[in-house]
Amino acid sequence: MNQSRPRRSALYLPGSNPRAIEKARTLPCDVVILDLEDSVAPEAKEDARGLACEAVRAGGFGPREVVIRVNGLDTPWAEADLQAAVAAGPDAVLLPKLASAQDVASLAAAAGGRTRLWGMIETCQAILRLDALGQASRERGVAVWVIGANDLVKEMRCRPGVERAPLAPALSLAVMAARANGIAILDGVYNDIPDLEGLSRECEQGMRLGFDGKSLIHPSHLETANRVFAPAPEEVAWARTVVAAYRQAENAGKGVIKVDGRMVERLHLAQAERLIAVAEAIAAHAS
């Protein structure tokens, strides 16, 4: 998996809405998720499947990753969704409600290795099985996890509040499990569409927790997510300073060096190189 690929903003769009899908081809999001699940009414499921798959085949999304979220294993649409989505050839298929290693294995087998897989972490079972889910995801080629906070809140019967305190342990553990298995991970959506201040606060929290980006439900949220989850200019400048210091002949082979009065280890060098790669990838997407 490309660890430096920007996934600051992943915008959900109903697969049943062709006008929204067309608009997505021009929006400044890193990822477009064409949804066949929560945002589509039961009577519209089959039409949405056809529209989403046709949009993928038509292309025109530029540098954006295009993902189709299918319906869950416990629904009557799952098998047809997965077959059609895989055949359409998106960048990935997003699998909802992963709850066990067996879920991962079953869905990966059904996909037959023909597409990259992403997975939703959105149940209490999933949180309690993160280690096994992470290992199964790594082995079966699940490249990205997406937090489904609304479903998790529903199952927990909690009241997240401004700081999402009841969710904090689950969010942190999910990030740890993802990192332990080389999986990218995106934070859940922010529901209050006009509250951009609250969105910014939640994006900042997600960034501090270690998420790569945020899933979103409205185009007005793109600017905030893109800004918060992009490396800050001062971070990029410091990263370049660290890389330059390690390239100096006198520092060759050293584990620990001093840079501008600060102790820097080789682990910081690896962090700096990744941060620079992300910043450069974002710049390339924007050009």
Report what the structure shows.
- With 287 residues, the chain is α/β, with parallel strands linked by helices.
- It folds into two domains: 9-228, Alpha-Beta Barrel (TIM Barrel); 233-286, no CATH class.
- 47% of the residues lie in helices and 16% in strands.
- The chain is built from twelve helices and ten strands.
- The strands form two sheets. Strands 1-2-3-4-5-6-7-8 form an eight-stranded parallel β-barrel, surrounded by eight helices. A two-stranded antiparallel sheet has the order 9-10.
- The radius of gyration is 20 Å and the shape is globular.
- It starts with 8 loop residues before the first strand and ends with a helix.
- The mean pLDDT is 95.
The CATH class assignment of the largest domain is: Alpha Beta
Query: Main sheet: which strands, in order across?
Result: 1-2-3-4-5-6-7-8
Summing up helix and strand content along with how strands pair, one would put the structural category as: alpha/beta
Total strand count, please? 10
